[in-house]
């Protein structure tokens, strides 16, 4: 979601809201997809994104990072 928040630097609130709405319909919140959908909403003829497959990313395992934090004095 940080990537989505950073889009506010380059895109309008309305475009980001449109991108998030489209992402909600597509069941994905990847920043890349939200950006594509947001930019598409700014076009006079938005590109169809209905046939985009859902992106499934593996869950990040933070156990190794937690171990590093625990090792600090």
Overall geometric form: elongated
The termini sit apart by: 32 Å
Rg calculated over all Cα atoms: 16 Å
Count of DSSP H/I helices: 4
**Beta strand %:** under 5%
Outline the biggest β-sheet: none
Number of strands: 0
Percentage of residues assigned to helices: 40-55%
Overall structural class, as computed from helix and strand content, comes to: mainly alpha
What distinguishing features does this structure have?
4 helices, 73 residues
Please explain how this structure is put together.
By secondary structure, the protein is mainly alpha-helical. It has helices spanning 2-6, 13-26, 31-42, 63-70.
Write the layout of secondary structure elements.
Blueprint: H1 2-6, H2 13-26, H3 31-42, H4 63-70
Helix pairs in contact: 2-3
């Amino acid at each position: 979601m940080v990537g989505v928040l950073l889009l506010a630097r380059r895109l309008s609130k309305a475009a980001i809201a449109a991108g998030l709405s489209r992402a909600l319909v597509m069941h994905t919140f990847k920043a890349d997809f939200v950006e594509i959908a947001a930019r598409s909403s700014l076009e006079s003829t938005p590109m169809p994104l209905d046939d985009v497959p859902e992106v499934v990313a593996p869950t990040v395992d933070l156990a190794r990072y937690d171990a590093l934090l625990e090792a600090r004095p």
